[in-house]
Specification:
Largest sheet: 7 strands, mixed
Strand content: 15-25%
Distance between the termini: 144 Å
Oligomer: single chain
Structural class: alpha/beta
Number of helices: 9
Helix content: 40-55%
């Protein structure tokens, strides 16, 4: 009897051991399938990412890691967002929410990048001069627009405000502006001693308003040959920083009674020259004559950015020349810009 009981217990233990082994085997099999499936899925993901990278970059067999691939894809997503923001910015510019847009005084957006923006520096009491310029070369109304659209030449009279804001001088300019729509009215006092600051402000504001190849300063008693100007400037478009004009280096006068007195004469040498009865000291640095000169867009933007730091001297042409002394600028001494002597092919002439 005892032998039978022992045999039954052994059989029961063997049966339970087999069940346990079977369960363990089944669990191990399922675990193997699970791990293999995850590994296969990861491998498929890696292959997909590499194929996508190959398709985008065209590099063929790639040895870039998955982490690097994910970074590249993330960068491309950021690039898409940046492109969308740039489109929004362009739309905002068209709506007038930014200052640096190629817009006219009436708010219209120009589709063509201007070749040159000409600022004709004028003052109160010079309407006859302005009318003569409109008739001779600048045009007005539809003719002014045609010059801008077909030749890319934008021309504006540049003037400040009266010291007595809102007086008859200001009102006369406002009336003329409403009629002709060809002014840049600066927020500064119109005075002879402020001419260098006036030129500086013109270049700065013009660079903010129009994205042109060149910017020109002209006096309101100068006739401009538009065709010759356009041809000359086109020949210099390959130069990034260019300063064009009738270059000179005049005397620096230290006597306050002299017409061309320079209060900062001491910066240019000794007080008086032994050979001059006018009290002339050394000569100015090389600069373009103030009747008319042209600077490239890069230099105009330099003036716009640094306008609060730029020093001015007694004369606007000397001041402009001083701004470019420390820069890598291509000086072009162009005889066609010597307005005092009219010759065949000349760009300007005093009237």
């Amino acid at each position: 009897m005892q032998s039978k009981g022992s045999s039954s217990m052994v059989s029961s233990m063997v049966f339970r051991t087999r069940i346990s082994s079977l369960l363990i085997s089944m669990f191990a099999t399922f675990a193997s399938f699970y791990v293999a499936g995850r590994l296969w899925q990861d491998a498929e993901n890696r292959v997909y990412l590499i194929k996508e990278l190959d398709r985008i970059t065209g590099l063929g067999q790639s040895a870039i890691s998955v982490d690097d691939t994910l970074k590249i894809i993330a960068c491309r997503e950021q690039h898409k967002k940046l492109s969308a923001l740039e489109m929004d910015l362009a739309a905002a510019r068209q709506e007038g929410f930014t200052s640096k847009t190629s817009s006219d005084t009436d708010g219209a957006v120009s589709k063509r990048r201007p070749l040159v923006v000409i600022g004709v520096l004028t003052r109160f009491g010079r309407k006859n001069n302005r009318d003569a310029i409109r008739k001779a070369w600048m045009g007005s109304g539809a003719t002014l627009k045609k010059l801008e659209n077909e030749k890319g030449i934008v021309s504006r009279f540049v003037i400040g405000r009266s010291a007595n804001r809102g007086d008859s001088l200001d009102r006369s300019i406002d009336d003329e502006y409403r009629q002709m729509n060809d002014f840049m009215i600066l927020d500064q006092v119109e005075a002879p001693g402020e001419l260098p600051k006036k030129a500086e402000m013109f270049f700065a504001l013009a660079a903010d308003r129009w994205d042109a190849e060149f910017y020109a300063k002209v006096n309101d008693d100068v006739y401009v040959n538009i065709d010759a100007l356009g041809a000359t400037l086109t020949s210099h478009m390959d130069k990034r920083r260019v300063y064009i004009g009738c270059m000179k280096s005049g005397e620096v006068f230290s006597e306050p009674s002299h017409k061309w007195y320079e209060p900062d004469w001491w910066k240019f040498g000794d007080k008086k020259s032994m050979n001059s009865s006018f009290g002339a000291s050394n000569r100015y640095f090389r600069h373009a004559s103030g009747e008319m000169y042209v600077i490239s867009g890069a230099l105009a933007k330099f003036i716009s950015i640094n306008r609060s730091l730029l020093r001015t001297y007694a004369h606007d042409d000397v001041s402009a020349g001083s701004w470019f002394l420390g820069l890598d600028v291509n000086y072009v001494d162009e005889g066609k810009f010597c307005c005092s002597s009219w010759s065949t092919g000349a760009i300007c002439s005093g009237v």
